[in-house]
Amino acid sequence: MHCPYCRHTDTRVLDSRVAEDGSSIRRRRQCPECESRFTTIEQMQLAVIKRSGVVEPFNRDKVVGGVRKACKGRPVNEDELAKLGQEVEDALRGSGKPEVPADEVGVAILGPLRKLDQVAYLRFASVYRQFGSVDDFEAEIAMLRVEQEPLGIEPLIPELASGPVRPASRSTKSARSRPNAGKTAAVSRPAAPRTRKGPT
Q1: What angle do CA 132, 136, 141 make, to 5 degrees?
Q2: Based on the structure, what is the number of domains in the chain?
Q3: Are residues 34 and 57 in the same domain?
Q4: Would you say 32 and 63 are in contact if contact means Cβ atoms under 8 Å apart?
Q5: Quick one: where's region Disordered (predicted)?
Q6: N or C: which end of the chain has fewer CB within 10 A?
Q7: Is residue 104 a part of any domain in this protein?
Q8: SS3 readout for the chain
Q9: What is the mean pLDDT of residues 118-134?
Q10: Residue 26 near residue 41, CB atoms below 8 Å
Q11: Among 133, 46, 27, 40, residue whose Cα is nearest residue 93
């Protein structure tokens, strides 16, 4: 490796340490020419195979940029976006594969984004999964509602939480139009005649 200070073509390693998560190695180097010291970090190269077949290095900034568009107007800050980008990269590197299809990158984004903001999740999922109709949105919302109900989480769209409203039946409508409908009319019965007891 060339020295970043004097551009000498050779450097020697003084110390090497593996990161806590085991994903990279930190090396302390020294140039024998100018004796300057510097640090390098070696990390496995992660590449993404695009749908066109082109292979390019994984770029966390592109992931964060795409999610940022989905989060426009939502209460999501830059720290949360940066954390999501780190989670996505960790998940992809954790697979142990040096090259991952672009579809797997999208799948790795959906999970953390659903926890971060459900509206942004629906926006991103509608593009990634190519929603073609309102039915696709309703199906996704229904799935979110099923996941939330056991946890006691407030529904994403309250109007859909109780299900579709059914129209009243004809018998119910006619009963409402008649004030006394449905009530049993009281029937008056003549009182029984009293009998007098005579002298014994």
Answers
A1: 145
A2: 2
A3: no
A4: no
A5: 157-200
A6: C
A7: yes
A8: CCCCCCCCCCCEEEEEEECCCCCEEEEEEECCCCCCEEEEEEECCCEEECCCCCEEECCHHHHHHHHHHHCCCCCCCHHHHHHHHHHHHHHHHHCCCCEEEHHHHHHHHHHHHHHHCHHHHHHHHHHHCCCCCHHHHHHHHHHHHHHHHHHCCCCCCHHHCCCCCCCCCHHHHHHHHCCCCCCCCCCCCCCCCCCCCCCC
A9: 86
A10: yes
A11: 46
Question: Who contacts 123 (Cβ-Cβ below 8 Å, separation ≥6)?
Answer: 70
The range of the structural domain enclosing residue 86 comes to: 47-147
**Are the C-beta atoms of 54 and 108 separated by less than 8 Å?**
no
Question: What values do phi and psi take at 39, rounded to 5?
Answer: -115, 140
pTM beyond 0.85: no
Tens digits of residue pLDDT in 64-100? 999 999 999 999 999 999 999 999 988 888 887 889 9
pLDDT in tens, 186-195: 445 555 555 5
